[in-house]
# Entry
Amino acid sequence: MKCVRLSDVESSPSGMPCSSREGDHAAGIVRKVLLGEHELPGSVRLSHALLAPGQSVAEHSHDDLFEVFYVLGGQGVLMVNGQSLAIAAGSCFVVEPGELHALGNDGSGDLTLIYFGLFA
# Structure
């Protein structure tokens, strides 16, 4: 068994990817990796992210990865293949391999979410 507390995990440095699989599309976002690459079979990582008002994750895609997101708090907008979707606390969504996606905080408070990747 493994137990990880968010308060015990250091944030990744601003502008630095959380793993070798992440590029600079999420520069400046406060991210904490709760479970790292290869800690679960077929999984990339489980992470917590905080986007301040106005922050966004640039459009990008993953050829071999599903990404699953759950919004813990705040509101924002998800763009997938040019389509916009409003997201808020309680929203859960999956981005499939090859889909161009971006995420932004268009609210007045922080947008917090957890996300993980699964190999296709």
In short: Residues 14-21 have pLDDT under 50 and may be disordered. The chain is about 0% helix and 50% strand.
